[in-house]
């Protein structure tokens, strides 16, 4: 919503107008708090989703890595936590993906190009 409001006032106003008669639930996202527009009463319910802070993310990284038998030095955990603003579930997914990718790395270094695709029979 923020980008639309900031870049295209007509489109934003049109969206608000359409939402006044929209008969279903609409979920909109933005990074700034909702400010009601007196021309378009929508009955907006704001839900704030907070991200864990750096210290909490560092704990999540450490815990998730330990579940797959991996660990990193504290300074690397700090770097990960500071660089990537992820939720606990996103950190778990990142670790699981990395863990499943590790066995494939030696195979990828054997060949710089992917194997040829099989040709269909003629």
Description:
With 122 residues, the chain is mostly helical. The termini are far apart. The model has no long low-confidence stretch (mean pLDDT 86).
Provide a brief overview of the structure.
By secondary structure, this protein is mainly α.
Q: What is the overall pLDDT average?
A: 86
The count of strands amounts to 0
Amount of beta strand: under 5%
Share in helix: 40-55%
Q: Count the helices. How many?
A: 6
Largest sheet: none
Structural class: mainly alpha
Roughly how many Å apart are the termini? 53 Å
Low-pLDDT windows of residues: none
Tell me the radius of gyration: 23 Å
Keywords, separated by commas or semicolons:
122 residues; mainly alpha
Break the fold down into its secondary structure elements and pairings.
Layout: H1 2-7, H2 9-21, H3 54-67, H4 74-83, H5 88-101, H6 105-110
Helix pairs in contact: 3-4, 3-5
